[in-house]
Each structure stands twice: as structure tokens, then as C-alpha cells.
């Protein structure tokens, strides 16, 4: 089984991965607790009642987090001859 860690420890690990990937951004530990609550990061409660994840589950989440995001399609606004405006 992968190593178990709290979300606070997970934040430290992910911030290290981000730094190694050349990303000048640090993610706060609170964000990881929120992501665990929403189910974005697979998590469980340990014997002490702390919210935890595994290194494997964290790596899976990180791979998705670092995927390039799709760009939103832009809409062109074109004025009509009769003064109305339409999307094309």
C-alpha cells in the first residue's frame, strides 16, 4: 500500500512537485482539505480522525491537475444592418 498522509503533508509534497516542474505557485493546505471533501482527491479518515490520502491517489490527482486546460471558444459579436446584434 502507498504511504498514508494528511492533507497538510499532501500540500507539502505537491508544492515540491510544482517547484520541480518549474511552477512558481504554492497551493495552500486548506485547498487540499476542500478537494478531499469534494472528492477531487481520494481520501479517508484514519484511526485518529484525520482526513488522509495515499501517495498513489495524490499522484493520480496531480497528473489531472497538471493536464493542460482546454481553451474556451470565443464568440464573435457582429452588428446587423438593422441595428441588432447577433452571435456568429
Task: Write the topology of this structure.
Elements (H helix, E strand, L loop, with lengths): L3 E3 H14 L8 H10 L5 E2 L5 E4 H11 L11 E3 L5 E3 L1
Antiparallel strand pairs: 1-3, 2-3, 4-5
Q: Could you name the key traits of this structure?
A:
88 residues, alpha+beta, 3-stranded antiparallel sheet, two-stranded antiparallel ribbon, 3 helices
Give the overall average pLDDT. Answer: 87
Oligomer: single chain
Sheet with most strands: strand arrangement? 1-3-2
Class by helix and strand content?
alpha+beta
Biggest sheet statistics: 3 strands, antiparallel
DSSP strand (E) fraction? 15-25%
Q: Which blocks of ≥5 consecutive residues have pLDDT under 50? A: none
Q: Give me the strand/helix succession.
A: EHHEEHEE
Question: Helix share of residues?
Answer: 25-40%
Describe the global form.
elongated
Based on DSSP secondary structure assignment, what is the total number of beta strands?
5
The total of helices stands at 3
Radius of gyration: 20 Å
Distance between the termini: 54 Å
Amino acid at each position: 500500500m502507498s504511504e498514508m498522509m494528511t492533507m497538510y503533508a499532501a500540500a507539502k509534497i505537491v508544492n515540491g512537485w510544482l517547484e520541480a516542474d518549474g511552477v512558481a505557485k504554492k497551493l495552500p493546505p486548506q485547498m487540499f482539505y476542500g478537494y478531499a471533501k469534494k472528492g477531487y482527491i481520494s481520501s479517508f479518515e484514519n484511526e485518529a480522525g484525520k482526513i488522509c490520502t495515499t501517495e498513489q491517489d495524490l499522484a493520480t490527482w496531480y497528473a489531472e491537475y497538471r493536464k493542460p486546460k482546454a481553451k474556451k471558444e470565443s464568440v464573435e459579436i457582429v452588428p446587423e444592418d438593422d441595428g441588432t446584434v447577433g452571435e456568429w
